[in-house]
UniProtKB/TrEMBL annotation:
InterPro entries, per database record: RAG1, RAG1_pre-RNase_H, RAG1_RNase_H
Example GO BP: T cell differentiation in thymus
Pfam families noted in UniProt: RAG1_pre-RNase_H, RAG1_RNase_H
Domain V(D)J recombination-activating protein 1 RNase H: 64-119
Cellular component, GO annotation: DNA recombinase complex; endodeoxyribonuclease complex; nucleus
Span of domain V(D)J recombination-activating protein 1 pre-RNase H: 1-59
Signal peptide: none
GO molecular function: double-stranded DNA endonuclease activity; histone binding; protein homodimerization activity; sequence-specific DNA binding; ubiquitin protein ligase activity; zinc ion binding
Name this polypeptide is given: Recombination activating protein 1
């Protein structure tokens, strides 16, 4: 993690004053609020944990495994309208690992951490 990286919730996802179903479709399509908010909070906690172990300036090689998700079709969330997936791209950071003499060591693992963004 670069020292210039700011850890925090992106785009004001915290403090939503309405339910997701009350937002316009174009707003909902920017993020899947349920998954994105939970994933962001979990990732923030993990990054802060790495910083507390002085790993924020780690310069040696590391491996990040990312699973990309589709952007086709439609998706329905709650009582709101179906949201076109084509307006978003989602991905999952599966693991981050560092090499060790006994093989790779996973320092981050979150196979259910779907993150979404507008392409």
């Amino acid at each position: 993690v670069s020292t210039s990286t700011d850890v925090g919730i992106i785009d004001g996802l915290a403090g939503l004053n309405r339910s997701v179903d009350e937002y316009p479709v174009d707003t909902i399509s920017r993020f899947r609020y349920d998954a994105a908010l939970a994933s962001t909070l979990n990732m923030e906690e993990n990054i802060l944990d790495l910083k507390s172990h002085d790993m924020d300036d780690y310069l040696a090689p590391f491996t990040v495994v990312i699973k990309s998700c589709d952007g086709m079709g439609v998706e329905k969330h709650g009582c709101g309208p179906a949201v076109p997936k084509a307006v978003r791209f989602s991905f999952t950071i599966m693991t981050i690992s560092v090499p060790s003499s006994n093989g790779p060591v996973r320092i981050f693992e979150a196979p259910n951490s779907e993150l979404c963004c507008k392409p």
